[in-house]
Amino acid sequence: MDRxxxxxxxxxxxxxxxxxxxxxxxxxxxxLILGVLLYEGFSGLSLKVFxxxxxxxxxxxxxxxxxxxxxxxTVIAVLIGTPLGIxxxxxxxxxxxxxxxxxxxxxINDILLSAPSIVIGLFIYELMVAPxxxxxxxxxxxxxxxxxxxxxxxxxxxxxxxxxxxxxxxAASIGLPRALMITRIAYRAAKAGMITGxxxxxxxxxxxxxxxxxxxxxxxxxxxxxxxxxxSLPVVIFxxxxxxxxxxQKLAWTGALIITFTVLALSIGARALSASGKQS
Length: 280
What we know:
Blueprint lengths: L1 H40 L5 H5 L12 H32 L4 H14 L3 H16 L4 H25 L3 H9 L4 H12 L1 H16 L3 H4 L19 H10 L3 H34 L1
Helix pairs in contact: 1-12, 3-6, 3-9, 3-11, 4-6, 5-6, 6-9, 7-8, 9-12, 11-12
């Protein structure tokens, strides 16, 4: 009995040691990446980064035009993708919960959720850029919207499925139409989780570079014309980091720092919102 107990203790200690080692290995890389990012990017962080345009090599400048371009593309992508995702998730959770169509849509949504973003960019290139004959901000926004949709679909369906059926039955018992039951009761109960999904989608598209290379491309100047190529922060970081100019590489580090902390803030906000929703 003592030998069996000792063997179990050894196995438990080995498993615990391997688990802790794997956790420290992963956290170590994360700390190393964030440390290098802070070291290289924080020194270039100043007011002119947010107020001046991207400079030519050897001159002072900032990242105003790619920051504005990224904000425009992100807002438009969310405005396109969020309603589509919420409506599809609502159908899957409220109307077609046991339909075969829902299973098919869920399967396709899962594939789209894990699809490489460069494939989505190439798809939008063939769908919009090639027929139009030029790159454009609209094509970039649509490519990002395609990434937003599956994230919102999944979170909307999951959050609505967590709403107790007793609430729906109570609404039906007083004669409330189904559409009103969904919008006034189910949406209200799942509001925190659904907003969390939108924030996670924003965090996902904030750092996407590959789809924008095939759609919005880049613009060295301060343009807000969505019918033409438009600057975005991920693409500028990609191009400046590969350049041989030290001042451009410094701006690339600063841009990467801005994106990282933006995504970090969105993730913390989503977690906090999700936690408050569970408590309420």
